[in-house]
């Protein structure tokens, strides 16, 4: 390989948020963050029905008071149809930037719409339920399929710990599950590198693993309605998002446990939250890796995140169906699942780890 080729092979474009603001009442700083980024007019806010009242209206009024033209759209679902609707409104109104104010669905719709029209996007999460609040990934439904789409990372993340602490604690516990899932995601990534020479970033892997380990070690500090707990989880989600940006993919934070979660989204009539499913998936995939699955399970229990099918409100049969389906979710991504679990092997995993009784 000549020098130019080698240099191209080494080229990597890492997109990271420019500003990350975390703290009590920082929602009032959104206007200052926009000013700092020279985003001073023509904004479109994407929010949810309930999160509009919690934060969307506050951000809207604050930006209007600072002299900006601001439109707001309530997004019902994280679907391609919704992204198109937002994109069309943004183009028709000639907006200069978008803000996702709410939970994962609103943030993903804003993130992908902003990417498609090549304008900046600011993430203002009202819950710390998964690392999508920071990442450059967008999970968007296209019919019955949910695709994980590469998008632009938010230019800024403004996480108001007071608002997030007041969200249902289940959402914070879900965010913890998504962080703890980094444990098996990194093990899968290392395995894929050894067996298939898949490109691997030591820095992204170390950051991702360390983030999960710190949270596991601090599990007993994660309590409902505590802003210090929110700060810890948000910083961990930021860290996971940065690891994905360094890697240029979701590999540091998404492995076999995520494939299980995506499979459960397909087969379960009423799936649980993303982070909850990933947490339970991590228990079982850690067992397959021959790792300390009990430590994972104990940490999730301390945090009061679900560790069984029953606690997720999902029937055992869907856990087994999802386990057998998991390896087909992203066949190009090699993990411990390899060519897939047989039905009897799936039952052994789920029973040994007490996910099903
Ligand atoms: N882009 C990415 O990297 C990722 C994206 N996702 C996607 O994110 C979506 C799931 O996001 P989630 O936030 O887990 O669920 P969600 O977006 O469905 O929100 C869950 C519920 O929490 C409510 N909520 C949010 N903040 C609240 C607050 N402060 N007070 C009271 N209620 C509040 C919402 O109104 C909603 O009813 C899915 O579409 C999933 O595919 C999941 C993981 C990663
Ligand atoms: O959820 C994610 C990381 O936590 C994103 O991963 P996916 O690429 O599997 O959607
Ligand atoms: Zn995730």
Automatic annotation (TrEMBL):
Query: One GO molecular function term?
Result: metal ion binding
Q: Which domain of life is it from?
A: Archaea
Q: Which cofactor does it need?
A: Zn(2+)
GO process annotations (BP): glycerophospholipid metabolic process; phospholipid biosynthetic process
An example Gene Ontology cellular component term from the record?
A: cytoplasm
Which Gene3D superfamilies does UniProt cross-reference here? Answer: 3.40.50.1970, Dehydroquinate synthase-like - alpha domain (1.20.1090.10)
Q: Where does substrate bind?
A: 131, 178, 262
Q: Where does Zn(2+) bind?
A: 178, 258, 274
Q: Which residues bind glycerol?
A: 131, 178, 258, 274
Q: Which UniProt keywords apply?
A: Cytoplasm, Lipid biosynthesis, Lipid metabolism, Metal-binding, NAD, NADP, Oxidoreductase, Phospholipid biosynthesis, Phospholipid metabolism, Zinc
Q: Where are the transmembrane segments?
A: none
Q: Tell me where in or outside the cell this protein is found.
A: Cytoplasm
- Pfam families this protein is in? Fe-ADH_2
Q: What is its EC number?
A: 1.1.1.261
Protein transport: is it a keyword of this entry? Answer: no
Q: In which pathway does it act?
A: Membrane lipid metabolism; glycerophospholipid metabolism
**Details of cofactor binding:** Binds 1 zinc ion per subunit.
**What reaction(s) does this enzyme catalyze?**
sn-glycerol 1-phosphate + NAD(+) = dihydroxyacetone phosphate + NADH + H(+); sn-glycerol 1-phosphate + NADP(+) = dihydroxyacetone phosphate + NADPH + H(+)
Q: Does the keyword Zinc apply?
A: yes
Concerning InterPro entries, the annotation shows: G1P_dehydrogenase_arc, G1PDH, Glycerol_DH
| Family recorded in the similarity comment | Belongs to the glycerol-1-phosphate dehydrogenase family.
Q: What does this protein do?
A: Catalyzes the NAD(P)H-dependent reduction of dihydroxyacetonephosphate (DHAP or glycerone phosphate) to glycerol 1-phosphate (G1P). The G1P thus generated is used as the glycerophosphate backbone of phospholipids in the cellular membranes of Archaea.
From the Swiss-Prot or TrEMBL record, give the protein name: Glycerol-1-phosphate dehydrogenase [NAD(P)+]
Upper lineage: Archaea, Methanobacteriati, Methanobacteriota, Stenosarchaea group, Methanomicrobia
Write the gene name.
egsA
């Amino acid at each position: 390989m000549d020098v130019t080729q080698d240099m191209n092979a080494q080229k990597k474009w890492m997109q990271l948020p420019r500003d990350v603001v975390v703290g009590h009442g920082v929602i009032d700083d959104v206007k200052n963050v926009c000013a700092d980024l020279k985003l001073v007019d023509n904004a479109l806010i994407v929010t949810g029905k309930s999160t509009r009242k919690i934060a969307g209206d506050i951000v809207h009024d604050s930006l209007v008071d600072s002299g900006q033209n601001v439109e707001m759209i309530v997004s019902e679902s994280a679907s391609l149809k919704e992204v198109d609707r937002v994109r069309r409104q943004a183009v028709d109104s000639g907006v200069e930037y978008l803000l996702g104010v709410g939970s994962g669905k609103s943030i993903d719709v804003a993130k992908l719409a902003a990417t498609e029209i090549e304008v900046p996007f600011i993430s203002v999460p009202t819950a710390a339920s998964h690392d999508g609040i920071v990442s450059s990934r967008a999970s968007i439904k296209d019919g019955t399929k949910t695709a994980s789409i590469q998008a632009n990372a938010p230019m800024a993340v403004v996480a108001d710990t007071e608002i997030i602490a007041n969200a249902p604690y289940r959402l914070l516990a879900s965010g913890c599950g998504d962080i703890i899932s980094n444990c098996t995601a990194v093990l899968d990534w290392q395995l894929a590198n050894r067996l298939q020479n898949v490109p691997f970033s030591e820095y992204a892997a170390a950051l991702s693993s360390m983030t999960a380990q710190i949270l596991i070690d601090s599990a007993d500090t994660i309590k409902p309605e505590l802003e210090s707990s929110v700060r810890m989880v948000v910083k961990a989600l930021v860290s996971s998002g940065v690891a994905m940006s360094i890697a240029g993919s979701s590999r540091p934070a998404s492995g076999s446990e995520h494939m299980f979660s995506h499979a459960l989204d397909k087969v379960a009539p009423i799936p649980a939250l993303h982070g909850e499913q990933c947490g339970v998936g991590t228990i079982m995939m850690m067992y397959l890796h021959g790792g300390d699955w009990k430590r994972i399970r104990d940490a999730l229990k301390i945090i009061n995140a679900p560790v069984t099918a029953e606690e997720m409100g999902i029937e055992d049969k869907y856990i087994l169906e999802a386990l057998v389906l998991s390896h087909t979710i992203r066949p190009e991504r090699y993990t411990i699942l390899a060519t897939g679990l047989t039905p009897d092997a799936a039952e052994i995993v789920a029973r040994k780890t007490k996910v099903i009784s």
